[in-house]
Amino acid sequence: MTMRISRRAFNGGLVGLAAAGSTAFGVEPACADVPTLEANTGFAQLAPPELPATPIWGYEGQVPGPLIRVRRGERVRRRFVNRLPQASTVHWHGIRIDNAMDGVPDLTQAAVPPGGTFLYDFVAPDAGTYWYHSHNRTWEQLARGLYGALIVEEADGGPEVDRDELMLIDDWRLTQEARIDPSFGAMGDRSHGGRIGNWVTINGAGEWRVEVGRHERLRLRLANAANARILVLGLHGLEGWVVALDGQPLAAPEPLERLLLAPAQRADLIVDATAEEGSDAFLVSLERDGAFTIATFRVNGSIRPRRLAAPTPLAPNPLAPLRGLADARRARLLMQGGAMGGMQSAVMGGRETDIRDMVALGKVWAFNGVADFAAHPLLDLAIDEVARIAIVNQTAWPHAMHLHGHHFRRVGEDGTLGPLRDTLLLDRQEAAEIAFVADNPGDWLLHCHMPEHSAGGMETWIRVG
Ligand code: C2O
Ligand code: CU
Q1: Residue 260's closest CA among 238, 278, 287?
Q2: Separation of alpha carbons 107 and 86, rounded Å
Q3: Which of 144, 164, 171, 420 is the most exposed place for a label (fewest CB within 10 A)?
């Protein structure tokens, strides 16, 4: 079988470069011993080189932001400095973090105004691949480039690989001049599948490529930083296993066929380059109209005569075991609304509101019939209580549901437990039950990670302790 692999078409023309002036704000000098993490404007060459660099917002003015790499159990300290014209916060996605450091405006901290600062200081309790991103006006700030990776290394040094590659995948909506399309949070995206772009990058590069040797073993740390694109990924000339999802090791490495990676999800792969010397291997995005190359691995020479043996599982992180499911506290979460959802009304500001009036206020979705941020938590849990949430997606769209501060497992119909995750993809009309140990005190968001959807009403929270 031969597969036609092509580059995603980019319908940009050569247009004169119009440099946008960067904005400067007066900011206090930072505290000497804590490294800063500055949200700022910048430029990135996202599009092919014949097109101009794209004005972005990024941490340190870059896309992606600086890679933060620590060992498990180490402390992460960053003085966040906001040099943007909007208030912002940093959320450390998937980290079982101290609630005060979770970066959720109005729930765990006040949004940091332009010119303001905030000290993020926390311990990374679990090894794995994580990421950080803006959590204010996320539909705009994430789409402009405010994200980066946080890698927490295994205490034992991790699996044996020749090379460790971070691959932060993003999906941009660019104009013909390679500018970020300013249609942030557009109602059409809110009510449909979210902001889907037209240009995919890895680590901010439109053409990501590396050289490898035949039978070289790589750890690929994939993360989906897109607002809304659900990636279906395949490999050609690379063979291997999934060893961790959303940072948490799988009990056993799973042979990789195709990988579903929803917004905010991560996957750690261990793969061997099996393509012939002198040929290319690919990571491809499988889409309705074909397979598109998103990364190229040039196989140059050979590292060893044959593949290494299958990897052993990564050491598990110190999470409390999930037991006592029969006596768990239970909640139900109905996901409603959106285009073709048939929703007539939902509660806003304490009263039933007609869908037309909701739309005027930017709301098109509801959780359990409520479209604005609920005054009461979905669950009020005692510390260490076990919780089960039955989620029913009654909409005509897939959603990537993210719980802050905890990892959960999916409970199968037969009671079997799925892998630990922090973000779960629910297909249209799909139901899934998740269970977790509520061992991290605080108020935690539970929302769709397509920010157009959460802004449009898909947001609730739980209280622990
Ligand atoms: Cu990655 Cu509430 O977000
Ligand atoms: Cu959604």
Answers
A1: 287
A2: 18
A3: 164
**What are the Cα distances from residue 221, in Å, to 244, 265, 312?**
9, 11, 17
Q: What is the CATH number of domain 163-302?
A: 2.60.40.420
Cβ within 8 Å of residue 266, ≥6 positions away: 94, 128, 129, 130, 131, 221, 222, 223, 224, 244, 245, 246, 247
- Give the tokens for residue 49: 């080189």
C-alpha span between 335 and 393 (Å, rounded)? 5
CATH architecture entry for 5-153: Sandwich (2.60)
Q: Which of 371, 401, 383, 367 is nearest to 440 (CA)?
A: 383
**Digit-coded pLDDT (tens) for 161-202:** 999 999 999 999 999 999 999 999 999 999 999 999 999 999
What is the CATH number that goes with domain 325-464?
2.60.40.420
Amino acid letter, 243: V
Q: For residue 314, report the distance from its CA to the centre of ligand 1, in Å.
A: 25
Ligand 1: residue whose CA is nearest its atom 3? 93
Largest CA distance in the chain: 70
Distance, in Å, from the CA atom of 233 to the CA atom of 267, rounded to the nearest integer, reads 11
Q: How far, in Å, from the CA of 217 to the mean position of ligand 2?
A: 36
The predicted pLDDT at position 31 comes to: 54
* Matching fold, domains 163-302 and 325-464: yes
Domain spans of the chain, in order of start: 5-153, 163-302, 325-464
Ligand nearest to the CA of 246: 1
Contact present, 191 and 339 (Cβ < 8 Å): yes
Q: Check if 402 has its Cβ closer than 6 Å to any atom of ligand 1.
A: yes
Q: Which of 84, 70, 67, 77 minimizes the C-alpha distance to 131?
A: 67
